[in-house]
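Bumping with the actual sequence this time:
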Amino acid sequence: MIAAAFFITMLGPTLPTPLYPIYEQHLGFGGLMVTLIFATYAVGVALALVLFGRLSDQLGRRALLLPGLALASISSAVFLVPDSIVALFVGRILSGLSVGLFTGTATAALADLATSSTQRRYSLIAALVNMLGLGLGPVVSGALAEFTSAPLTLPYILHVMLGLIAMIGIAMIAEPLDRKMAPFRWELQRVSLPSQVRGTFIRAATAGFAGFSVLGLFASVAPALLAQVLGVTNHLVWGLIVFAQLGFSAIGQITSTRIPDRQAMLMGTAALSAGIMLTGISILVSSLPVLLAGAAIAGIGQGMSFRASLGTLAQRSPEHSRGEIISTFFLVLYIAQALPVMGVGIVADSYGLAVAGVGFSLIVALVAAGAFLSLLLAKGEAIR
């Protein structure tokens, strides 16, 4: 039930991706506004992680899973407000708050339920439903946009209904965390780490920053790139391109369970660097097949490194600070989704989307290559 609710929550953030060109046409704004609207989501995630990242370790997992689902449904309901830029910003920040509450908490809850023999399998489940939810969101909305007459309402109505069903399910489960009774004290999320996970965290966060920057690019400006640079205007194809990147991420996650985490992170960061370079090349040569190849390779690399780093952190974190550590990790990842994409929007406004996309690809490829070298030169015990 936790995995299903996690999946439903993660459908929401990418539902608007293939719809942004429709919003641009209806509301009369440009590409820079799209990146600002997208970045608002990441701001919501960061706020939730900072304000509430530690609460599930004190109050229990269900106490945050239910509000996270409620916010996801409310977010989609806000998108139903017609012809309003304000509604887009409010809907995105609520979507970010829901994801910020849910990701670290649900991942920690699945780790709580795992035994020593199922720890890796449960970390895989957490990573898979995260990526598959994000990946299927644009496919659902893209299909509804292409084949129905209500592209700006049906995706959100569907998500509201699924969110309400998930809330009923989560309300019925037992609390996953065996809590120690202690006085409640609310504090901001601390950006601090126990010494036993610090080296692991830094390397995992570097790889994650590169990977989630790529996710941010595909989830925000991919439709504009496809339309303006490659001449692809089908909404479903836009959604499928985003799904290709995130779907191959799921394949990378599954593959990574068969090899040690350190090796998975090395292979993942190398593939991520190569894939995002191909993405940049596809923009230069205006080639959809090259873009698909880049999305697939980058997706596999992102999935391998993400699953391995998330699993290692969950396994090595002390039980009653696990939610805090994982929330800090996701805080880094969602900052990575927002800042580079905002940079793409600013550069694109002055020099064009093609120049911005190529420059972004080069920078992120270098970050991924740096993560690879850091892992290669690290001592073997840093990430097992």
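The tokens above came from a reply further down the thread. Residues 322-351 form the longest helix (30 residues).
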